Amino acid sequence: MNIARDKYLKDLIDRMGNGMIKVVTGIRRSGKSYLLFKLFYEYLLNHGVSESRIIRIELDQRRNRIYRDPDVILGYIESLIQDNKQYYILLDEVQMLPDFEEVLNSLLHIPNADIYVTGSNSRFLSKDVITEFRGRGDEIHIYPLTFKEFMQVYDGDTYRGFADYIVYGGLPLIATMKTETQKINYLTNLFDETYLKDIIEHNHIEKTGELEDLINILASAIGSLTNPPKIQATFKSTIHSSISIHTIRQYIEYLEDAFIISKAHRYNVKGRKYIGTPLKYYFEDIGLRNARLGFRQVEETHLMENIIYNELRYRGYCVDVGVVEKRENDKNGKQVRKSLEIDFIANLGSQRYYIQSAFKMPSSEKQDQEKIPLLNVNDSFKKIIITKDIVNITRDNNGITTMNVYDFLLNENSLNL
User: What pLDDT shows up at residue 100?
Assistant: First the structure.
C-alpha cells in the first residue's frame, strides 16, 4: 500500500541542508518511519543522490543493535562520509540510542551532514526530541491520515469512506484492514497496550485508574467547553474521586505531550484577546477516541467538528474557538450582553477564517441560527459554514460561504473557493 503524503515530503524537502536536525514528530503508528525511510529516501534517489550518500539506520531493528552504542554509530557514520559532498543521515527510533543527544550534537559538527530523525516510545516521546534540541531542531509534525489521504487507498465511494473514517479514524494501518473486527481490535489494543502504557511508564504514573478516567471524560467531551475545575467536579459527582486540580492539569499535559489530544483556546473576537478557560480538547485521531469509549459514543456532530479541527491544523493553521459578544434586550426590555460561539478561528500569517461546523441544516431557521455568530463579526475575513448536507458551494448576500464537508476535506484549497 502506497500513500502519498505530499505535504510532509515537501516539508522535508524545504528543510534540506538548513543546518538543523529535522525531527519528525507525531503519535506512534502515524507514519513517521514511512515518510522518512520510504518517501523521502525515494525522493533523494530520484533526484540524483547516490545510495552511498544516504546513511539509513533503523535502530529498532535487531540487525542494527550494534549501532545502539554511541561510539560505534558515530564511528560508522564518520567512516561512510568520505568526501565533501552532501550526505543525508536518517535515524529511526533515535530514543533507542543511549546518549543520543551527544551523538546528534556530534553529527551537527560535520559540515556536509544533513540529519533527520524520528523517535517515540515510553522512554522518550517524540516531543521530547524536539524539546531537547530547541534552537537546533526543526520539527515536522505528522498527523494520522487526513480524509483525502485516507481515500487514496479506500476501496469504496466518498460517502462510505467518510462513514468509516468518522468511526475508525486515519491511522495508516486502519486503511488496509477489511473488517470491523480487525479495526476495533487494532485500535483498542493500540490505545491500551501502546499509548496508555507509554504515558504511564514515561511519567511514572501510579494512579493509573484516575488517568484512564480522565481520558474517558475528555473523550466524552470533545467539542464541549471544559477546564480542570469542571473535570474535577465530574470526578467527584460521578466517580467519587478526590483527584486534585493539579493532578488533572498534569495528566492533561501528559496526554498533550504524547500527541493524544490538543487544545483550542477561546478568543474574544471584538476584544481581540484570549480568554483563559474554559477551552476545548480534541483527539489527534478520531478512531483512538472512539476506541477509548468502546465505540459507544459515536456522535457524528462532535466527531465531524473534531475532524474539521484536525484538518485545519494539518493545513498549518493556528486554531482557536471564537467568542463574539452581542447586545440584545431580555424579556423585560433590559439590555444584556450575550456571548455567541464560533466553532473555529483559523489563522495563518495574514489569513483568517471564521468557521462553523453544522452537521445538518434542514431548515432556514437552522441556517439562520448558524449564521448569527458570523454576522456579529465586524471584519472582512471570510466566514464559512461546513455541513454534512450535500450542497453546492454558495455565498449569501452577507458574504457567508456554505460548503459540504466532503468539498472541504478533499480540496486543500477549499477555504478559498
Answer: 87
Q: Is 263 helix (H, G, I), strand (E, B) or coil?
A: strand
DSSP states of 57-118: EETTSGGGGGGGSHHHHHHHHHHH--SSS-EEEEEESGGGSTTHHHHHHHHHTSTTEEEEEE
**Tell me, what's the pLDDT at 152?**
94
Q: Which residues contact 170 (CB under 8 A, 6 or more apart)?
A: 143, 144, 145, 146, 147, 149, 150, 285, 286, 287
User: Phi first, then psi: what are they for 409, rounded to 5°?
Assistant: -75, -30
Element (H or E) spanning 301, and its range? helix 300-314
Taking only the tens place, the pLDDT of each residue in 277-323 is 899 999 999 999 999 999 998 899 999 999 999 999 999 999 999 99
Helix (H) or strand (E) holding 273: strand 273-283
What is the maximal distance between C-alpha atoms in the chain? 84
> How far is Cα 5 from Cα 396, in angstroms, rounded to an integer?
35
* Exposure b/e, 328-360, CB count within 10 A at least 16 = b: eeeeeeeeeeeebebbbbbbeeeeebbbbbbbe
- Sequence letter at residue 235: F
Q: Distance from first CA to last CA of the chain, Å, rounded?
A: 32
Q: Quick one: CA dihedral 23, 141, 199, 58, positive or negative?
A: negative
**Dihedral, CA of residue 187, residue 288, residue 29 and residue 151, to nearest 10:** 90
Contact 374, 354 (CB under 8 A): yes
Burial code (b: 16+ CB inside 10 Å, e: under 16) for 113-122 equals: bbbbbbbbbb
Phi, psi of 343 (to 5 degrees): -55, -50
Give the whole-angstrom CA distance, residue 218 versus residue 228. 11
pLDDT of residue 276: 85
* Sheet with 87-92, edge to edge strand ranges: 54-58, 87-92, 113-118, 21-25, 137-141
pLDDT value, residue 333: 74
**Ranges in the chain, pLDDT < 70:** 121-130
pLDDT value for 337: 83
